[in-house]
User: Which sequence fits this backbone?
């Protein structure tokens, strides 16, 4: 956990970085000029995405999602956190069950352009 914190803090200190996950919303929560974005979707949409994008069977996609959800929960448990999906922790929450990823990316870009 200490190494993960050190690496994420080092990457962020150089600026202009995108850090996906790895508890960075906790590690960098008090840093200036850092924006936290949560991207979520319902499980059925996540399954369909993996089936299409990676040519997985439904069973493989479900298993991959279950394993990733478990890995993620275990990581946050090690940080003593269980509120990783709480929208209050984020500047922007994108539900890709309602907004496609391209439009979500544009929203993030607009948010960053207005802050610079």
Assistant:
């Amino acid at each position: 956990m200490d190494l993960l914190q050190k690496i994420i803090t080092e990457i962020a200190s150089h600026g202009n970085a995108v850090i996906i996950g790895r508890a960075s919303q906790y590690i960098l929560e008090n840093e200036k000029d850092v924006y936290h974005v949560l991207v979520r979707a319902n499980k059925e949409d996540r399954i369909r995405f993996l089936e299409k994008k990676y040519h997985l069977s439904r069973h493989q996609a479900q298993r991959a999602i279950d394993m990733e959800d478990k890995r993620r929960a275990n990581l946050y448990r090690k940080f003593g956190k269980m509120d990783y999906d709480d929208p209050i922790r984020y500047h922007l929450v994108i539900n890709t069950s309602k907004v496609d990823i391209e439009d979500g990316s544009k929203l993030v870009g607009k948010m960053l352009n207005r802050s610079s």
Q: What stands out?
A: The domain at 2-101 is CATH 3.40.50.300 (Rossmann fold). Residues 16 and 43 are 31 Å apart (CA to CA). The chain has a mean pLDDT of 92.
